[in-house]
Amino acid sequence: MSDxxxxxxxxxxxxxxxxxxxxxxxxxxLFGLAWLLLIYFVGVxxxxxxxxxxxxxxEWVHDGRHLLGFPCH
Length: 73
Fold this sequence. Notes:
Layout: H1 22-44, H2 56-60, H3 62-67
């Protein structure tokens, strides 16, 4: 047997993901919120559980609703 022992290797330093600042996330969060609101108003808002009273908004997005394949009648 050999008296030569393997030298314990040093552990590699952990790799940390880069920090993302709020300034980088903010525009994407606004973009996502705008898309969610658009999908709600075009696809979901039909008057029964409407955020806006009356059917004015429904009439404004009516053709877009059919174009995107959302049922509305």
